[in-house]
Amino acid sequence: MLANKPFPPEGLRAKSQARAAARLHGLSDRAIAWLFILPTILLLLAINIFPLIWALRLSFTNFKSNMPSVPARFVGIDNYTDIPCCLTE
């Protein structure tokens, strides 16, 4: 009974040969497109996200840009609690 059936089945062999041929031809067009686009996306994220995180970090300190030699000290949310009193004056 097993002698009559080919091992592996012909359909499976054809599929594996097609996959092997696809691997030999290289990357697909979609993969190549992503390889070209990905560095640009990463650069844009770095240019936009890094300054945002840096500004948020500095907002929790007493950093003064006109006195860069003075070390920044962590003040927590004191900068944000001063905002309502400054708006009413």
UniProtKB/TrEMBL annotation:
InterPro entries in the record: MetI-like_sf (IPR035906)
Membrane topology classification: Multi-pass membrane protein
Record field: transmembrane: 31-56
Species this protein is from: Paraburkholderia translucens
Localisation per UniProt entry: Membrane
Swiss-Prot/TrEMBL keywords: Membrane, Transmembrane, Transmembrane helix
Name under which the protein is recorded: Sugar ABC transporter permease
SUPFAM superfamilies the record matches: MalF N-terminal region-like
